[in-house]
Amino acid sequence: MVTCQADHRNGDASVLAPTDDIAVIPAPNPGPMTLEGTNTYVVGRDPAVVIDPGPADRGHIDAVRAEAERRGRTAKLLLTHSHSDHTEGVEMLGLEPTALADDEEAFGLRALATPGHAPDHLCFLRGRGLFAGDLILGEGSTIVPPAAQGGSLADYMDSLRKLQELDIDVIYPGHGPVITDPQAKVDEYIRHREEREARLVAELDKGVRSRIALLDAVWDDVPAELRPAAAYAMQAHVEKLVAEDRLRAEELSE
């Protein structure tokens, strides 16, 4: 499998040789949460499959459409989840997404339900490659929002452990570079969350009940611009502890 990087300054995808199998076209929506931008993948040929069209940016969508058209019949569209940075371009692309259930196959890909980051999150398995959406990023860690925003840390951890059981060689993330050591990356993600939870529990065991104090102590390595996201992450951890009867939500103060 071969990946190619797009030059999103002019909206053109790099041209692939006929034997190349996968193109990744990063969208021009970089930021602290999206890294270099949302990765749109164009997979296979006759028909090509588009995974996550990204934002409604004309240059980006034109590049995706052109790459799909080079690959034969009308492309098919799959979505890893419904967050806007992955889906806003659906209407502009002009393709109806194909909805797949857990373990359902289509176009040579098998859907795997992997909730946690979003309740409708799917990964797509193709051979020994996994299109991971926002379950795992190419750099850093993904945000698991609290229940009010559709997240669940317990579900997210279950989804990561589901990946541990797969025999895969490469992960194509929704943001950031391709991951060529998938098992090490999955283990790193699980360890990161477990260590964060252990630090949170240690502060709670000390009697700390202020949310601000807990955030300062446990997420002290997070840059200032990501502090709101860290607060989201902390709430997801709190909800997990409450569900496990390890904490009562009313104990916490601002």
Question: How would you explain this protein's 3D organization?
Answer:
With 254 residues, the protein is of the alpha+beta class. The protein is 32% helix and 15% strand. The chain has helices spanning 58-69, 84-87, 90-93, 153-164, 182-205, 211-218, 227-243; strands spanning 22-26, 39-43, 49-51, 76-78, 105-106, 109-113, 122-126, 129-133, 170-173. The strands form two sheets. The chain has a five-stranded mixed sheet, with no helix packed on it. Helix 4 runs antiparallel to helix 5 (182-205). The model is unreliable at 1-19 (pLDDT under 50).
What is the terminal separation in angstroms?
50 Å
For the sheet with most strands, the description reads: 5 strands, mixed
Q: Approximately what portion of the residues adopt beta-strand conformation?
A: 5-15%
Number of DSSP helical runs: 7
Structural class: alpha+beta
- Strand order, biggest sheet? 5-6-7-8-9
Helix content: 25-40%
Whole-number radius of gyration?
A: 19 Å
Shape annotation: elongated
DSSP strand tally: 9
